[in-house]
Amino acid sequence: MKNITRILMKKRITTMIDRNVLKNKFTGEILFDEKMSNHTSYGVGGRVNAYIRPKNKPELIQIIKLIHKSKSKVYYLGSGSNFLVHDKNINCYVISPTKAIKSLKIQDNVIQADAGVMLGKLVKESMRNELTGLESLAGVPGTLGGALKMNAGAWGSEISNFLVSVDVIDSKGNLKTLNHDNLKFQYRSSSFSSNDFIISARFKLEKSSEKNIKHKKKIASDGRIKTQPLKYRSAGSVFKNPNSMLAAGFLIDKSGLKGTVCGDAEISTHHANFFINHGNAKAKDIAHLIKLSRMSIFERFGIMLDLEIKTIGFKNKELFPYD
Ligand SMILES: Cc1cc2nc3c(=O)[nH]c(=O)nc-3n(C[C@H](O)[C@H](O)[C@H](O)COP(=O)(O)OP(=O)(O)OC[C@H]3O[C@@H](n4cnc5c(N)ncnc54)[C@H](O)[C@@H]3O)c2cc1C
After folding, report:
1. Half-sphere exposure of residue 32, counting CA atoms within 13 Å on the CB side?
2. What are the tens digits of pLDDT across the range 9-57?
3. Domain span at residue 299?
4. Which of 133, 142, 191, 261 could form a disulfide with 205 if both were Cys (CB 3.0 to 4.6 A apart)?
């Protein structure tokens, strides 16, 4: 019994960092035992050891080094608009650049922006400088870091189309610059290592007339308002489309699942690939709808849908019907 206790204690010591070390060494925002429901667009998620927003880039590098050295579990978060976090407490740290790592500079047709810059600001500033390329992303919530990791896109355009290079910090705290050619981007995915924290990026856009850019932005914004349930909390599309000719939302709709409710979560009647939180949904309610959709679509069409959203804290069997 003593041995077991010793093993458990050892495990705990290697996976948690002394709070005083974090408090004394760093001056950014560190929220201990923080509820992730405060930091996800779904508004769900249990407590993590600490939610950390570093004060600047040197502090970010030190925190990443410390956490990796301690072998603690860490997740990188932008604004949490593509995350489903479990309701339980999770033994992990979460780092986000949204407090202070958000400088944005434009020179001629090149944009240099930090990971914590919100996409809305990136789109607005590029438009103000009569640069075209990013306006289709108007209305996509999230940060630049999250958008690059997800290769966010809308209306046939993806953020990687205009990328020149990205700076990342690896788990040892080394800063590396990756050129576009060193990276692979596909539909809602990228080849960044899960240990790499995206810190900043450069984009090269083209000059265009204000009228032309505004027109393209209007098409994107109008389309979004018409097709998405924007009044409610969600994380956007839950599943990836199986291919460019077959939408996950179409399959969910054809399986008769639009409007299906679990607790306070619902498969939107407006857009079947958006699962919405009416206010008091739990992550387990959303997970139940994910499992149900996967099962119904597999039984009807023989297709197992892949998640577009990222998850924290779930076991496979909580999200897959046949696990
Ligand atoms: C209403 C609504 C509409 C949406 N519409 C679209 C759409 O049209 N197109 C689209 O593509 N998406 C859409 N989304 C999904 C979401 O907005 C995008 O995926 C967005 O790019 C996520 O950005 P984020 O900062 O919130 O990332 P998060 O959700 O915080 O994280 C997403 C992923 O990026 C990683 N990550 C975040 N920051 C970093 C970093 N600095 N370094 C390394 N990894 C990082 C995370 O670990 C995670 O794997 C929508 C979401 C909502 C709520």
Report:
1. 8
2. 544 444 689 999 999 999 999 999 999 999 999 999 999 999 999 999 9
3. 229-319
4. 133
Using a cut of 0.85, tell me whether the model's pTM lies above it. Answer: yes
Q: Are residues 61 and 10 in the same domain?
A: yes
CA-nearest residue, atom 33 of ligand 1? 146
Q: Are residues 112 and 222 in the same domain?
A: yes
Among 166, 195, 226, the domain boundary falls at 226
Residue 142 CA, ligand 1 centroid: distance in Å: 5
67 and 111 both lie in a single domain: no
Per-residue pLDDT of 223-281, as tens digits, reads 999 999 999 999 999 999 999 999 999 999 999 999 999 999 999 999 999 999 999 99
Do 110 and 159 fall into the same domain? Answer: yes
The Å distance, Cα 20 to ligand 1 centre, comes to 32
Last residue of a domain, one of 226, 260, 287: 226
Using the mean position of ligand 1's atoms as its centre, give its distance from the Cα of residue 78 in Å: 7
Short-list 105, 210, 198, 95, CA closest to 150: 198
Query: What residues act catalytically?
Result: 188, 237, 308
Residue nearest to atom 36 of ligand 1 (CA): 146
How many domains does one find in the chain?
A: 3
The closest residue, in CA terms, to atom 21 on ligand 1 is 147
